[in-house]
Specification:
This protein is α/β, with parallel strands linked by helices. It has 15 helices and 15 strands. It folds into two domains: 6-70 and 350-460, Aspartate Aminotransferase, domain 1, CATH 3.90.1150.10; 72-348, 3-Layer(aba) Sandwich (Aspartate Aminotransferase, domain 2), CATH 3.40.640.10. It binds 4'-deoxy-4'-aminopyridoxal-5'-phosphate. It comes from Leisingera aquaemixtae.
Length: 464
């Protein structure tokens, strides 16, 4: 890959002046927007940046590039569908590719989760799940049963409703969010449990937090509990064994629906189509997914509903009722073509098996990172990992220097050819699932060196 020439400066200007990016750093009282690194080409697990560097995509896009970049089969399937039938109204019509994709997802979803509602991404999938829960309770004559129980540090999306259900403090700071529907449970991170508390006691406490919340709200008001199987962008928080199963039991006992947000954990990230059933032993009422659904090649999400949820609202109503919620691009044929091809490749190439095969090596290398003095905790499952850092070794992210460590590590790793996803005092990885053991070694070798460089830099600044 050659370096991009001077005329490239135009794009830099337009990017700054015209492209209002998500999570834009506005520097409202500073010098304006920062320069972003451009990339125009990517292949497999590598992104080639504007400086001609070949960089491992540690975050796998945004946890979505399951099959990696440059997959010609998916690109061809999308192009063929665009030529054949680029669009079909999901409101009044149907087309085979979208129906086939819905069936393929239902076949792979746990239990009786057979009703696949397509959306434009993860946020709209979660939004739809909540709207359906409310809609259903209205039909059942339970108009007060609307509160949604969610968790500190969760991430469920960027719409007004889903952002209101997200518990990452840094992202709520400058926004108004809904204060009526959400009810937040405290931190489920075992690393932050009180000194001397056993994991078993911590688990009991977390399950009790849920039950107490339901009792406090009243089962007549508590509609659903939403949880990521492994809490992802809020810091890769893996729950203690048995957590989800016991939470589901609590939900069932009090007639509260269980929404498993598998936007990150679905489609192979943890070595299975869905993690809920295979890894955590639960069949939730609703699963939301996106990202890996099309391996990042097309924007699409889905909320998958249990047949059971329709039994008591269908059939005996005296008048027609419409679920008046939907998107112009629900079930988009070109996205469905990408998704169907994605599933076909996963099965033909044994991608789930591959993830399960390389996971022990990935997790071993991740856990070895704990030997570095800067690192106070490592967490992970499947092909997801997180290192948590502190200069103080107390492990508590302070508002000051600790909170910037992730960004320093990312900068030092990029010099070495690795991108990571910084989050405060953490760095997170979720590489394309096609990564080989040798590439996992490259990734962790660079990460080790990057963390060492970052440590030296931070200490040289006298920040102890
Ligand atoms: N839920 C979870 C668990 C997520 O991680 C994300 C995105 N990171 C979303 C929902 C929102 O998905 P999207 O950005 O596709 O709208």
């Amino acid at each position: 890959m050659t370096k991009l020439g001077n005329d490239f400066e135009n794009f830099k200007t337009w990017d700054k002046e015209n492209y209002f990016h998500p999570w834009e750093g506005l520097k409202v009282q500073g010098a304006g927007k920062a320069d972003r690194t451009f990339s125009e080409y990517a292949e497999g697990i590598y992104v080639y940046d504007e400086h001609g560097n070949k960089v491992i995509d540690g975050p796998g896009g945004m946890w979505c590039m399951q099959l990696g970049y440059g997959n010609a089969e998916i690109a061809d399937a999308m192009a063929a569908q665009a030529r054949k039938m680029a669009y079909c109204s999901p409101f009044s019509e149907a087309t085979s590719v979208s129906a086939e994709f819905a069936h393929a997802i239902a076949e792979r979803a746990p239990g009786d989760l057979n009703r696949v509602y397509f959306t434009t991404g993860g946020s709209t999938a979660v939004d739809t799940a909540i709207r359906f829960v409310h809609f259903r309770n209205n039909l059942l004559g339970k108009p007060a049963k609307k509160r949604i129980i969610t968790r500190a540090h969760a991430y469920h999306g960027g719409t007004y409703l889903t952002a209101s259900l997200s518990g990452k403090p840094s992202e709520r700071q400058w926004f108004d969010t809904d204060q009526v529907l959400p009810h937040f449970l405290p931190d489920v991170n075992a690393f932050r449990r009180p000194a001397g508390m056993s994991i078993e006691a911590f688990l009991d406490e977390k399950v009790a937090d849920l039950e107490n919340a339901i009792l406090e709200l009243g089962a007549d008001n508590a509609a659903a509990f939403i949880a990521e199987p492994v809490l992802g962008s809020g810091g890769v928080i893996v729950p203690p064994a048995g957590y989800h199963k016991r939470c589901l039991e609590v939900c069932r006992k009090h007639d509260v629906l269980y929404i498993s947000d598998e936007v990150v954990t679905g489609f192979g990230r943890l070595g299975h189509w869905f993690a809920s059933e295979e890894l955590f032993g639960i069949t939730p009422d609703i699963i939301t997914c996106a990202k890996g659904l099309t391996s990042g090649y097309a924007p699409m999400g889905a909320a998958i509903f249990s047949d059971r949820l329709f039994k008591d609202i269908e059939g005996d109503v005296s008048k027609d009722v419409y679920f008046t919620s939907g998107y112009t691009y629900s079930g988009h044929p070109v996205c469905a073509a990408a998704g169907l091809k994605n599933i076909e490749i996963f099965e033909r190439d044994g991608i789930l098996e591959h993830v399960r095969k390389v996971t022990p090596h990935f997790q071993k290398r991740l856990h070895q990172m704990l030997e570095l003095p800067l690192i106070v905790d490592v967490r992970g499952m499947g092909l997801v990992g997180c290192i948590e850092c502190s200069l103080t070794r107390e492990g508590q992210a302070s508002a000051g220097i600790d909170a910037t460590i992730g960004a320093v590590i990312d900068a030092r790793c990029q010099e070495l050819g690795l991108m990571v996803r910084p989050y405060g005092n953490m760095a997170i990885f979720s590489p394309p699932l096609v990564i080989t053991e040798a590439q996992i070694d490259d990734m962790f070798d660079m990460l080790t060196e990057g963390v060492q460089r970052a440590t030296r830099e931070l200490l040289e600044q006298g920040l102890e």
